[in-house]
Structures are given as C-alpha cells and as structure tokens.
Amino acid sequence: MENHSRSDNIGEEILGKQYDAVLKDEAASSFNNLRTEILMQKADVVIALFGEKYKQWNTAMDAGAAAAMGKPLILIRPADLHHPTKELVNKANVVVETKEQAIQALSYVFETD
C-alpha cells in the first residue's frame, strides 16, 4: 500500500478512535494483515522491495509470509542490506538489486519464444 497514512489510520477509520497509539497501531495492523494475506494468496508471484528505512520491517514480514505460503518470491535488495536479509535471500527464488532487474526477471518468465 502506497498510502501510508491510510494504512496507519485504517483501524480507527473502521473501529473508531482508539485510546492510545499502541491500540491504534494494533487495530491498523489487524486490517493490514488481513489485506496482505488475502492479496498474497491471490498472487502468482510476490516481489518484496527493500527500500526506505522504516518500510523494511514490513517488507521482511511480507517476504517471510510469501516464503511460508510457498509463493514464488523475487527479493529486491540493495547490496548494503546483504547481511540483514541473508536468511530471506535463501528463501527467495531470485534476488536482484533494482526494480528494473525484477521486471526483467518477470519478462523472462513470460517469454514465449
């Protein structure tokens, strides 16, 4: 989800105002986990992009879930994240450093000649 504000606030949008930041986060995470699981189950392939610093936690969670579901996994990881992602790398089908490389990998999969 690109709309981070909506993702952070979805729990309160659905359940109403929460009493503190922890409850707000817990409510939002329930709906975000539901959304992610449903969409991931429908996916033929999962692409996990490690990018901005604070989004890496969610990416790691999603990549691990995809691997546990047996979904084909393309991991986009810059070289400077080699060490913290080494276990996930061994669960992925393909590891690349850029979005363009991930697109090339998918293009290769669907080549007909």
Structure classification: mainly alpha
Largest sheet: 3 strands, parallel
CATH topology of the largest domain: Rossmann fold
How many structural domains?
2
Number of β-strand runs: 3
Q: What is the mean predicted local confidence, pLDDT?
A: 90
Q: What fraction strand?
A: 5-15%
Q: Write down the overall geometry.
A: elongated
Along the chain, the helix and strand elements come as HHEHEHEH
Total helical segments: 5
**Terminal CA distance:** 35 Å
- The CATH class of the largest domain turns out to be Alpha Beta
Q: What keyword list fits this structure?
A:
55% helix, 113 residues, 3-stranded parallel β-sheet, 10% strand
Characterise the protein shown here.
The protein contains 5 helices and 3 strands. It is 55% helix and 10% strand. The model has no long low-confidence stretch (mean pLDDT 90). The protein has 113 residues and is mainly α. It has 2 domains: 1-42; 44-113, Rossmann fold. The longest helix has 22 residues, at 21-42. A 3-stranded parallel sheet has the order 1-2-3, with helices on both faces.
